[in-house]
């Protein structure tokens, strides 16, 4: 059975999205200095504003989450198709198997689009942040390492007050 790969940067993504929406704001002390430099700038006071690289990082993290979700959906449909195809009679496929094959094609297409969006977002972030990708290293592998090394995991998203 397929299990969804957890997205440990989800809390940081929500915090970064909130930061980009309500800027300028006070600096977040939980951010590592390298990441804070890429995400925001200051005008000499305690107020920080999001940079183009910060907005690009939001796109990268959203695309990374979408890629994980698309991979999960593809695996789920493939498991279901394998389960039903095992008992199918030879010859003309049944309507349910045809529907499952169509779902599989849609899931694969969504996975391809998510990967393409991730690559475009990674290129935008690397350019905006001025990060040099080492030679002979793929951009996707480099960005996965960079995210795992620099982006905080398991952060709690800021509370949104809902006064009723």
Low-pLDDT segments, ≥5 res: 160-164
| Outline type | elongated
- What pattern of helices and strands is seen along the backbone? HEHEEHHH
What's the story with the biggest beta sheet? 3 strands, antiparallel
Radius of gyration: 20 Å
User: What do the pLDDT scores average to?
Assistant: 79
**Total count of helical runs of at least 4 residues:** 5
Word description of this protein:
This protein is mainly α. The chain has one domain (10-150). It has 5 helices and 3 strands, in the order αβαββααα. The protein has helices at 10-21, 33-39, 52-85, 95-129, 139-150, and strands at residues 25-26, 40-42, 47-50. The protein has a 3-stranded antiparallel sheet. Helix 3 packs antiparallel against helix 4. The longest helix is centred in the last third of the chain and has 35 residues, at 95-129. It is elongated and about 65 Å long. Mean pLDDT is 79; it is low at 160-164.
Features:
61% helix, three-stranded antiparallel beta sheet, mainly alpha, 3 strands, 5 helices
Helices and strands in order:
Blueprint: H1 10-21, E1 25-26, H2 33-39, E2 40-42, E3 47-50, H3 52-85, H4 95-129, H5 139-150
Antiparallel strand pairs: 1-3, 2-3
Helix pairs in contact: 1-3, 3-4
Compose a concise summary of this entry:
By secondary structure, the chain is mainly α. It is built from five helices and three strands; from the N terminus they run H-E-H-E-E-H-H-H.
């Amino acid at each position: 059975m397929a299990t969804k790969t957890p997205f440990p940067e989800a809390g940081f993504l929500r915090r970064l999205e909130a930061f980009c929406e309500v800027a300028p704001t006070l600096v977040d002390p939980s951010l590592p200095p390298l990441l804070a430099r890429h995400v925001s700038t200051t005008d000499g006071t305690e107020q920080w504003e999001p940079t183009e690289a910060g907005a690009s990082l939001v796109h990268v993290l959203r695309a990374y989450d979408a890629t994980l979700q698309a991979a999960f959906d593809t695996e789920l449909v493939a498991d279901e198709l394998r389960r039903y195809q095992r008992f199918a009679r030879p010859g003309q496929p049944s309507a349910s198997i045809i529907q499952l094959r169509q779902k599989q094609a849609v899931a694969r297409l969504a996975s391809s689009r998510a990967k393409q969006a991730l690559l475009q977002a990674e290129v935008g972030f690397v350019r905006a942040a001025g990060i040099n990708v080492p030679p002979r290293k793929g951009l996707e592998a480099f960005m996965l390492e960079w995210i795992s090394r620099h982006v905080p995991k398991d952060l709690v998203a800021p509370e949104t007050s809902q006064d009723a």
